[in-house]
Amino acid sequence: MTATAPPAGGTPAHESPHHDSGGRVEAILAPLGRPTWRWWASLAVALGGLVWFAQAWIFQLQWGLVVTNMADWGYVGGVPWGFYEGSMIWWIGIGHGGIIVSAAVRLFRMREFAPIARIAELLTLASLANAGLYIVIHLGRPDRVVTSIVPNLPTTLQTSPLAWDVVVITLYFVLTATYLTLTLRHDLHTVRARLPRLLSPLYRVIMVGHRPDERAKAESMAWWLALGLIILAPLFLHGGVIPWLFALLPGQPGWFGPVQGPQFLTAALASALGAVTLLAYLLRRVYGWRDIIDDNVFRCLSRWVGLFSLLFLWLQLQKVVTGMAMAPGSVSTSVDAMVNTPLYWVAIAMLAFTVGHVGFQMLAPHRFSVARTAAVGALPLVAVGIEKILFVIEGLMYPAFSLHEPGKYSPSWVEWASLIGALSIVAVFFLLASKAVPMVELDDEHADEARKVDT
After folding, report:
1. Are 261 and 247 in contact (CB under 8 A)?
2. Do the Cβ atoms of 290 and 393 come closer than 8 Å?
3. Distances in Å between the alpha carbon of 52 and those of 22, 82, 128, 258, 422?
């Protein structure tokens, strides 16, 4: 096959242009080889971030939540929830959106997204783990998970949306892990000669009861599980239970209302697709996967990112217009505070630029750039994070009742350290996963080629 020049602004020259069938399989399996010095350097940086987060958390455990800038309601003002809760919502949204992408690939036969399906699945596991971590962090003491939450869950589940939150995160994590295991078993069996021996105990657990002829049955099970995930997401997860945690509280006018369900869901999909775009670009660049994760994948991703960013902006417009026109006083106060926060408009500008960039690339396809698409994909990811943190803070700062005058809040260094730690967890997870499993799912043709190569 004759190599063609990459489009303007597309793939760097050092990336391999095309592979034949056997070369394609070798490219997919290449990350399973011996780590390079760049891999070790990246792991060292990520572990450094974890060390920084660990010492910040130890500091909090030693002195209590007073080291954060959150405060109880009262004469001192402030908010009892802040950066931790906003970050938790953000990570849950990324996780839910990520598995929706993967489930849609299998359920609706969206083959153009097949090369990034496993990336989305792995992103979901890492994101939901971070969401659960933020719950533990804000408990003050980790032992409260087993002394307070678990023993009281059967009764609090009937009265507390927060208990629903814990159950939903756990349910989605288990479903995602099961889904990933089903799609991994065939690939691990196919490339077992390439797998690191150090992880043999883990592979034995994943492959328990495996039979060479189980592929069709596993595919059927994965399809039904994908259907369940697609149904659960808008009805009970980031379109239901998570926004209900806020939308059912009339005492908080910045939260109350039916708009929260679709707003949370569109935000989750925009941020998750942006994160998948960024991760796919990094893997493509590092491993030279230009023909494995090709330009068309990024074109399709950018359009979906633009669509959900546009829908989120539209829902924000509904919220602002109805909150400033002839709304009750408490609602007007909350919305007025939101629109007078400069950081809110930074997030809106990021989303608007994303929509504009996608429109520009659709009108001028010859100006398409993979690198620019990946960079713009990061904007809704950051914008949604900003909006969710402001959503939590301002929703608590301007309640319908008047216990105190509105206070001030900005995250402390301990809270910022948690963000560094969460991002480091994702980095470490993907670095290790790239050495443990194929990052792109092998279809039947790839599996046959892998067997021939190993033979």
Report:
1. yes
2. no
3. 43, 21, 21, 40, 11
Q: Which of 96, 28, 88 is nearest to 283 (CA)?
A: 28
Contacts 24+ apart (CB under 8 A), 48-52: 48/424, 49/420, 49/421, 49/423, 49/424, 49/427, 50/421, 50/424, 50/425, 50/428, 52/417, 52/420, 52/421
Q: Rounded to the nearest 5 degrees, what angle is found at the Cα of 56, between the Cα atoms of 163 and 432?
A: 80
Quick check: 404 pLDDT over 70?
no
**Per-residue model confidence as pLDDT tens digits over 349-381:** 999 999 999 999 999 999 899 999 999 999 999
Residue with tokens 């369940």: 228
pLDDT digits (tens, 9 = 90+) for 142-158: 888 888 888 888 888 77
Distances (CA, A) of 30 to 202, 435, 450: 20, 9, 12
Kindly report the pTM of this predicted structure: 0.89
All structural domains of the chain? 45-454 (1.20.1630.10)
Q: Give exposure, 45-66, as e/b (b: 16+ Cβ within 10 Å).
A: ebeebbeebeebbeebeeeebe
- Please list, in sequence order, all residues whose beta carbon lies within 8 angstroms of the beta carbon of residue 234, skipping any fewer than 6 positions away: 240, 261, 265
In this structure, are residues 120 and 127 in contact, taking their beta carbons and an 8 Å threshold? no
CA distance 276 to 273: 5
- Lookup: tokens for 237: 């997860």
| CA distance readout (Å), 343 to 87, 253, 338, 346, 414 | 16, 20, 9, 5, 21
From 341, 349, 348, 347, select the one nearest 408 (Cα to Cα): 341
